[in-house]
Design a protein that fits this description.
CATH superfamily of the largest domain: Zn peptidases
Low-confidence stretches: none
Number of strands: 16
Distance between the termini: 21 Å
Number of domains: 2
Number of helices: 10
CATH architecture of the largest domain: 3-Layer(aba) Sandwich
Order of helices and strands: HHEEEEEHEHEEEHHEEHEEHEHEEH
Shape: elongated
Length: 375
Amino acid sequence: MIEVADILKKLISIKSVNSQSNEEITNEIKNMLSKFEVKTFEFIKVDSVTKKSVRLFNLVVKIKGDSDKNPLVFSGHTDTVELERGWSVDPFLGNDKEGKIYGLGACDMKAGLACFISAALSLKKNPKKDIYLLFDADEEGSGLGGKKMIEDLKLNNSQVVIAEPTDRSIIYGQKGCLDFIIEVEGVASHSSRTNLSNNLKNNAIYRMLKIQQEFLKYEGEIEKMSDALFGKPSFNMGKISGGSGANVVADYCILNASRRLLPIEDLNIELTKIRNLVSQIDPTAKVTETFVGEPFIADKKSKFGEKLSSLSKKFIGESKFDVKSGWTEAALFSSYGETFIFGPGTSEMCHKLDESVSIDDLKAFKEIYQSLMED
């Protein structure tokens, strides 16, 4: 039997940055899982989706159980962020030192993949119910793989584990995310021939300023809301660009913004509010959503939540429930049923130079996942 640490090192050795195809790592996972001792498994599909002429692949593995009711689902993404300069170790070697394994994607989230691959390979007999292992693409991008997975694979009343790193906490909810851009077009002219009246009418930067001023009021209004678990919703204007130079009246301006929502909020209603706000200030301005992710919340006192809590105590020594402000694909896969995020690694290691995961976490979560599969 291949040790979980060796599985992780192999996954790390395969470059699967988001801008490239993930076909090689998908094929390697298929090769690993072909060594199942349990024979009632099947590769349901390896679907592809094209992003900027790059083919990306999803892999679905089904382990047939005695019952097809309330299937158990493990989900993870195969892509990593782009490689940054400054690593002190080889990011694709999977160095093992001081109780940790280093490498690009070691924590986010090839460790999670390694744990549920290893758990599945450890099964000695058919499980009591169907088990699905989902490997999707482009989570670090726009989430094309996860969205395609939801379209292609229909599951109901499932129990879902997202194997993202969670600092040993069981995450049962997260905020929603709405990212969008606003584009304003102006009329270019030489700065020596303009004036305030012309700038207010034709300078795209001036017109965007009016929209920004309204967003400040909007931000103040949403901060009046508060939630006992998630705190306040948030809004951020993160990037602005426009014009061509100081001596030219700007003929364009683009603003990138992000709105994080509480689970009690309706994403479509908020998007409509934003569109209406912009339209009232500048009817010609264009609003385009670049990412839309629903919030979600699960019942931590459910039987599945209690089972995760019990296994956490057994293999980690403690049980902690928490929610998160950031967005993961858990919101997508919550359409399958009861969903929790619970995986090896720490959030501080995500997207970081010299990314690593502890071997203790690998071993603990492999045992947790195997126990879930065997239950």
